[in-house]
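Changelog entry: the IFNL3 protein record was regenerated in this release. Current contents:
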Amino acid sequence: MQCLHLTSLLVLVLGVSLGAAFPYNTLRKGCSLFKYRQIMVHEKKAVEKMQKEFQRKIRQPGRNCNIWLFDREWMPAHLSVPDRVVLVEAELDLTITMLQLSTHPGFTKTRQRPLAFLTQAREDLRGCVAPSHQPSGEVSQWLRDLQAAMQKENIGCLEDYAIRHVLEVLDDLRCAALQEQCS
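Regenerated structure tokens:
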């Protein structure tokens, strides 16, 4: 009888050890990104309206900005699902921060709906990836580039960049929610 208990315990320990050695490449249980598989048309229209308003009233042409974070040599669609979530969460953090920092009075109303949607998406992403997940080399390098840009670029350039690329962030969010290869 004791041999049976010892065998069961050994199988349990071995199973847990192997599970940790070979992490399963999916999102954590309880993480539902289903609603982002298809971004609602009214959310995209609100983002497009915000971008147009920003272009028309706020953006300063001729500003010398050198940020190329979205011009990557790799496609987010080719990343693992956890890497896509890490990427989108960082993109959302940048975009939300820049929208919150904007002090242009005419832009305040236009940004409210996109800001609320993006903030909710970021909250839905939080905790989806296991804390033990180590991002791939591409994502790790991109995260370092993002940190460097946040420290050396001026706020106006970061704001301009984040707002111009918010539709790409929405597409990356959709891609992360699909949990499979997407285009």
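DSSP finds seven helices and no strands in the chain.
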